[in-house]
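Milestone M4 deliverable, item 7.
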Amino acid sequence: MTAIPLAEFTAARGVHQGHGRLVTRMNYETVPKFLARIDLFEGLPPEVLSDLVERGTTMTTQPGTQVIEQGSSGAGLQVVLAGSAEVLVNGVPRAPLTVGDYFGEISLIDGLPRSASVVTGPDGMTTFALSALAFAPVVRENPKVAQTLLKALSARIRALEANAAGPA
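Output delivered:
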């Protein structure tokens, strides 16, 4: 995952507020460019990126808010556009999420309960969110999306295996 300058993201705030989250309208010109630089969407045609953006939303979450809880249901991908978050797996802290990182990709694919908890950092967090329901037709209509996703997840598995093996 690559950190991306925040200057690429703009949003018009004030659409809906509830449960500690402020849903915002995204700028349809900058979010596709932002997503194009993330390994999960890298190399996808502009029209596919635009389709993903149209199907998703942006959400701003207040500091200290639990965004997802490990073991909970509800599949959906979120890409961090601004702010940060802490990640906990079985209560153990993992690397924090920052701009350009994403979470929920595993549940997005397999529909199983969340494998980690995510709590927003001291400045809160703004994410681009895409539900499994919105994502599925894009994958069916664009096989390149599935290929890109497989490559990104395979790279993540290889990195985890290399870290688990330790020094040679």
